[in-house]
């Protein structure tokens, strides 16, 4: 079975293209495979944050992307992953701008040049957006949560919740808090499968405003834990940044979003109908071509796996060095 190891902001995935000969896999085995291949200790080449499964898309799209988290759970969306799938399909179909089918929407993607020599970038649409509790799987006894203290979560932080369409809980915090333990402690609780507030879990992000138009986002992801970055979280955080800090940033303005794995740009848009959507623009790095035996992988045996590095990771690390050190 062939995979491409990819990442967006070092939020890394294995792309599985089921349209290639001999690559069809059952849903149950796909989820079992994710738990094995993504394991950071025993998985393939350091594991990953999930699997991006490609199948044929319906009319008007070049393919369908499913998102399987490292724990085997399925998510409705993956922003960093969508950019890498866009690059994969752009190369496969010789197209630069098209739509990809996702769980709730066909989303626009397009090539966006290079963020740095050898670091190709793609622009991915992030939508649909909803603030409704039912769309978030949120049980707080209210329909929306916008910039509000929730004593059950924390005595002083102010939280917002938005689905893009996967669920995100966001708080704007100071530097000490963004690097502290509070994020992991709260997110572990809200993803324990027992809490009454988010029974299906939620991606939790703390955001630090670095300068007008520049934010840092740290995320603890549902189904994964801490990741280097989360594209939908950075997009959702950008939306809340525009809505809550309108004196610093406006709709249609390009926002710089730093994360532990690198940097992306976002733009928040609003349709005439009033609904929002975001552009998530960032790297789509292909790290290696991979080949494993499925039965061995399902048994957690990667001793015979073939790993052919592309050489792109060195360029991505040079990009991160420039971005973080100037
Ligand atoms: N890291 C992804 C999000 C993957 C799904 C998320 N963990 C969830 O369960 O909603 C991204 O880049 O958006």
From TrEMBL:
Subcellular location, record wording: Cytoplasm
Q: According to its UniProt record, where is this protein mainly located?
A: cytoplasm
According to the UniProt entry, what is the EC number of this protein? 5.1.1.7
Query: How is this protein annotated for GO cellular component?
Result: cytosol
Q: Which residues bind substrate?
A: 11, 69, 79-80, 166, 203, 221-222, 231-232
One GO biological process term is: lysine biosynthetic process via diaminopimelate
Is ATP-binding there in the keyword field?
no
- Pathway terms, separated by semicolons: Amino-acid biosynthesis; L-lysine biosynthesis via DAP pathway; DL-2,6-diaminopimelate from LL-2,6-diaminopimelate: step 1/1
Q: Which Pfam families match?
A: DAP_epimerase
What GO molecular function terms would the record report? diaminopimelate epimerase activity
The protein's UniProt keywords, in alphabetical order, are: Amino-acid biosynthesis, Cytoplasm, Isomerase, Lysine biosynthesis
**Which regions span the lipid bilayer?**
none
Q: Where is this site: Could be important to modulate the pK values of the two catalytic cysteine residues?
A: 168, 221
Q: Which PROSITE patterns match?
A: DAP_EPIMERASE
**Annotated active site:** 78, 78 (proton donor), 230 (proton acceptor)
Q: Does the keyword Cytoplasm apply?
A: yes
Q: Which NCBIfam families match?
A: DapF
**Assigned protein family:** Belongs to the diaminopimelate epimerase family.
The record describes its quaternary structure and partners as: Homodimer.
Protein task: Catalyzes the stereoinversion of LL-2,6-diaminopimelate (L,L-DAP) to meso-diaminopimelate (meso-DAP), a precursor of L-lysine and an essential component of the bacterial peptidoglycan.
What is the designated name of this protein?
Diaminopimelate epimerase
Name the species this protein comes from: Ligilactobacillus equi DPC 6820
